[in-house]
Request: fold
Amino acid sequence: MLFSLRVLLALLLWVWATNARAETVIVYTHSADAATERDADGQLRGLPHAGRRAFLVELVRELMQRVGQPPKIQSIPLERGIRTLSRQKLSALFNLNRTPERESHFKWVGPLQSNTVSFYENAGAPTGISNLADAKRVEAICVRRGNSHAQYMRANSFTNLIDADSYESCWEMLKLKRVSLTTLGDDLEPQMRLQTQTDTDSIANTKVPLYATDGYLAFSTDTPDSLIALWQTKLDQIKASGRYDQLLTSYYHLASPSKGLPP
Reply:
C-alpha cells in the first residue's frame, strides 16, 4: 500500500513538472543589441536610459517574472524570429507590430507600447510630400527588410522601395541622398539621432504618417488561450500598478546628448 502511494505521488509530481515545463514560453526579441547588455548571469538586460528597446526588454523581463518563469530572453534577427514563431511551439517574439496581415498568424499580448510611423527626409533635399500618394511618387524609399513598414507599403501599391538590413542603414542612405525618404517609428527618432549623431538640419520628420501602430508580444498559435490570458492580465497589472511608468523613466527616457547613448 505504501509503495503504491509513493508511486502515485511520484506520478503526480511528474505530471505537474511536465505541465509546468510545457507552459514555459521561449521568448525572443530583435534589434536590441545597441540598447542592451548581458549581465553576470548571461541574461539580456536593458541599458538605463537607452530608449524604447531597452525599455521593452525590461518590461518583458518583469512580465515573465510575474507569470512565474525565469526572465530569459534570446536575441534573434527579426525575420528569423517571425519564422521561428511558425515552427517552434510555445514561443514568443517582441516587439512586433500587430497588423491585419499578421493578425491570424500569431496570438497577441499587449500593447506593450503605441507609436506612429512617419516618413523622414533629407532636410537639404525636401520632398514636399503631404500624404501617402505623394510618397508613392518619390524616386526611392528605404525600408528595413521584412518589417511591417515594408509589408504595409507593398500591400498598398508602393513600387519605389529599397530594402536595407537596418534602420541605421536607411538613415545613412538618406543622409547621403541615395534615397528620398525612409520610415521610422517616431519614438525611435531621438535614439537614432544620438546613435548616428544626426541633427534636425540633416534629417527631418516630414510629419506625414505612414500609420499609427501598437507593438505587441506575439506568441505561436499553439499557445493555450489560458496562458495568453495570464500574460495579458499580468501586463495589465504592471500598467495599473505604476511599474510601467517606472520602467519608462529608468529605461525609455534617453540620456542627454552630453552624456551620450550607451554603446
